[in-house]
Amino acid sequence: MKAIPEVDRKAYELAKSYLPSQKITGVTQALIEKYQNLSSLRPKPTSRNELYERLLRSAQNAGMKSSVIGDSIGGVDKLSSVLYDFSPKLVLANYEDDWEAVLDRIIKELKPRGKIRKTSRSLWPLYCQTIISAARFIEQFDSANQFFEWVDFFDQDARARPSLPLLLDREIEGFGFALSCDFLKELGYVNFPKPDIHLHDIFEALELCQAEVDDYQLFKAIIRLASNADVTPYAVDKVFWLIGSGNFYDDPEIGSIGNHKQDFIEFARLELLQE
After folding, report:
1. 10: which of 17, 80, 196, 266 is 20 to 30 A away, CA to CA?
2. How far is 13 from 128, CA to CA, in rounded Å?
3. Residue 33's CB: how many other CB atoms inside 10 A?
4. pLDDT tens digits for 43-64?
5. CA atoms of 166 and 169, how far apart (whole Å)
6. What is the mean pLDDT of the segment spanning 98-114?
7. Of the candidates 240, 155, 160, the residue with the CA atom closest to the CA atom of residue 194
8. Would the pLDDT of 17 be above 60?
9. Residue 40 has pLDDT above 70, yes or no
10. Could you give the 3-state DSSP secondary structure of residue 5?
11. In this predicted structure, what is the pLDDT of residue 7?
């Protein structure tokens, strides 16, 4: 292999062109670029209630959580009726620190599908703990604008930037580093890629990072690759995530094309070895 910058650039180029090269109906270079473009995101929240809802959406955006949490009640937006239109102030006033009361009301009013385990480390109890701690976190800010000013403080300094997901992880129960990044990037912050399982698998297999790295280390590897490829970390996140997930969520006529991760790894490994 050549020096790291050249390997990074080549890996990104291979990733961006891979799915369009597979002759899948509708999957073009322009489509990939659409998903890499922040203009496709929803506008930033203008209230603390909207911020709180976005945070809770990200909190169930990992592994089995989305099917156990959001899908079982017809979407996170359905929580509005038990979370007072996603008012962190009213959530704290009515539930205080009692996550079990939150869960009991969800079960009674929203009737989630499937079996709900009530042990404290099971998915629904953990999520209800997130609901309480996230409300307490958002309640620290007087407005959505004040929250964004606070995030901007970290984002404008590359040295401080990685500490923000670490801080959110400590402040919000059950959130974690990766989901903290997911929350920030979906708010429009391009410098906070989500180090999820797909990027872990691809980066480690292609030796774009050390083996068995943690989320923090992978986060920094994604940012390094983005810098070498002269694109945003968000763009890197999306192109590798699409290969792993196959989920074109904004284009229902395409929908899910399945996981292409292992095929891409085998293809890219051969191409990179030629460098």
Report:
1. 196
2. 41
3. 14
4. 889 999 999 999 999 898 876 6
5. 5
6. 93
7. 240
8. yes
9. no
10. helix
11. 95
Give the type of residue at 33.
Answer: E
Spatial contact of 2 and 264, defined as CB atoms under 8 Å apart: no
Name every residue whose Cβ is closer than 8 Å to that of residue 80 and which is 6 or more positions away in sequence.
53, 86
66 pLDDT band (50/70/90 cuts)?
low
The mean pLDDT value for 28-49 works out to 87
Residues 6 or more apart whose CB falls under 8 angstroms from that of 60 comprise 66, 68, 69, 70, 76, 127
Q: Collapse the DSSP code of 247 into the 3-class scheme (helix H, G, I; strand E, B; otherwise coil) and give the result.
A: strand
Distances (CA, A) of 177 to 2, 23, 58, 268: 31, 36, 12, 28
pLDDT score for 161 = 93
b/e per residue 143-178 (b: at least 16 CB within 10 A): ebeebbeebeebbeeeeebbebbeebbeebbbbbbb
Cβ atoms < 10 Å from Cβ of 142? 9
Determine contact, residues 108/101, Cβ cutoff 8 Å.
no
Is 0.85 surpassed by the pTM of this model? yes
Burial group, residue 227, by CB count within 10 angstroms (0-12, 13-18, 19+): middle
- For residue 244, what are its two tokens? 């792993």
Give dist(CA 79, CA 212) in Å, integer: 36
Structure tokens at 104: 């009991």
* Tokens read off for 208: 């774009």
**Average pLDDT estimate for 98-117:** 92
Distance, C-alpha 213 to centroid of its chain: 18
